[in-house]
């Protein structure tokens, strides 16, 4: 059938175009890694700027204590930062735990805001706006409730933003704290290193663009004030605020030496819910910023808009189309003369995926092992295929919520 050949050809071209873009980002990211390894963190001179660290938390009793303790142990002058925990409409023992930590560290700038179902419980963006209203810092840092940043993390972020007036925000790297629990957490660890931080490094190296990841980042207070705070309709508030920072003329830099460790989902059910929320939130950001493609003043951010648009729409559609056509060709329902070529390109794509992903792992101590090659290969035929379902589900949920005008609420990631 001619139509099946055309569909397969279009799908293959789209998939390979995006694959080559990913290879380009890996190469650029690796170059950036080699460069930053040799560079020193710029020194902080004079009085350190006052920083407000905000931690939005909803039913985080299992992890919030360790997070606050690690923030209190940062090597930043204790009188030059405050910690604001927004315990947002929690029904667990978070309030009691946080009260105990306040008593233990009396005299430290630890503020706990307890909201109820009237003032809170409306999502992370709303919680951040509540915390920001009580903050005093000229710089605002955000950490998720499951994070344990390394002692130097905040100082490195502050040093970068203070020494470059063109930066509106600086993001750090996050690592998987529970990577050795099971195969899923090992997959997530690989994904975090290759498709999140290496892609960030590549985009910064090539386009001076980065997307705020939601945790372990710092931004200027006046930016938050200028844009009116966080968009309460956005469940991917990190990506959403990134585009508004871009449009103010600022850049967002990636500093991989500022590291935090976070807990990742340990069950497929929790992972699927979390990633669906991410996909749904990013679709909202794509739709909201789509008009910027035709805005002359948005030239610098067009790559990011097209990048997200390609991943969540073009790539998902192309992968599903090619997979369906290959299955239908195998069982004889359709006939495509490109089936053998498509199979060859698919095998070549796997090879590129494995090699490219493994190269990114060589940048981390303890990750360069032969067993990780097997993990990457298995990841391609399982984890990556599940991602297509996540993206499709995120699209479905976005448009369903748009039609029924559902209110944004906390999408709680279960902790372990």
UniProtKB/TrEMBL annotation:
Keywords: Glycosyltransferase, Membrane, Transferase, Transmembrane, Transmembrane helix. CDD domains: CESA_like (cd06423). The keyword Chloroplast does not apply. GO terms for molecular function: transferase activity. SUPFAM superfamilies: Nucleotide-diphospho-sugar transferases. The keyword Metal-binding does not apply. Pfam families: Glyco_tranf_2_3 (PF13641). It comes from the Bacteria. InterPro entries: Nucleotide-diphossugar_trans. The chain crosses the membrane at residues 6-33, 305-331, 343-361, 373-396. Belongs to the glycosyltransferase 2 family. This is Glycosyl transferase family 2. The lineage of its organism: Bacteria, Bacillati, Bacillota, Bacilli, Bacillales.
């Amino acid at each position: 059938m001619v139509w099946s050949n055309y569909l397969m050809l279009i799908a293959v071209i789209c998939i390979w175009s995006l694959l080559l873009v990913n290879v380009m980002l890996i190469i650029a990211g690796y170059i950036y890694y080699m460069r930053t390894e040799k560079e020193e963190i710029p020194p902080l001179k004079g009085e350190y700027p006052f920083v407000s660290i905000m931690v939005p938390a909803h039913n985080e009793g299992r992890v919030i204590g360790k997070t606050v303790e690690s923030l209190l142990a940062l090597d930043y002058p204790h009188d030059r930062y405050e910690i604001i925990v927004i315990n947002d409409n929690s029904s667990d023992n978070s309030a009691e735990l946080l009260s105990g930590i306040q008593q233990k560290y009396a005299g430290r700038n630890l503020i706990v805001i307890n909201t109820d179902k009237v003032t809170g419980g409306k999502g992370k963006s709303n919680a951040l706006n509540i915390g920001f209203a009580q903050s005093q810092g000229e710089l605002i840092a955000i950490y998720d409730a499951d994070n344990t940043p390394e002692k130097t993390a905040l100082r490195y972020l502050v040093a970068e933003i203070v020494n470059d007036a063109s930066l509106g925000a600086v993001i750090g790297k996050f690592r998987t704290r529970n990577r050795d629990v099971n195969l899923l957490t090992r997959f997530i660890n690989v994904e975090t290193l290759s498709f999140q931080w290496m892609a960030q490094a590549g985009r910064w190296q090539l386009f001076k663009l980065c997307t705020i990841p939601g945790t372990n980042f710092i931004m200027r207070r006046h930016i938050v004030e200028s844009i009116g705070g966080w968009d309460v309709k956005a469940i991917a508030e990190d990506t959403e605020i990134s585009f508004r920072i871009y449009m103010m003329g600022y850049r967002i830099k990636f500093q991989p030496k500022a590291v935090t460790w976070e807990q990742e989902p340990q069950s497929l059910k929790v992972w699927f819910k979390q990633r669906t929320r991410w996909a749904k939130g990013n679709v909202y950001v794509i739709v909201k910023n789509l008009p910027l493609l035709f805005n002359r003043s948005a030239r610098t951010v067009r790559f990011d808009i097209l990048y997200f648009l390609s991943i969540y729409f073009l790539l998902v559609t192309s992968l599903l189309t090619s997979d369906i056509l290959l299955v239908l060709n195998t069982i004889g329902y359709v006939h495509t003369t490109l089936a053998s070529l498509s199979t060859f390109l698919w095998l070549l794509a796997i090879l590129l995926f494995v090699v490219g992903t493994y190269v990114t792992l060589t940048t981390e101590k303890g990750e360069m092992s032969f067993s990780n090659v097997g993990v990457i290969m298995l990841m391609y035929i399982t984890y990556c295929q599940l991602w297509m379902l996540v993206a499709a589900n995120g699209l479905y949920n976005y448009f369903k919520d748009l039609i029924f005008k559902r209110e944004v609420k906390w999408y709680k990631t279960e902790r372990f």
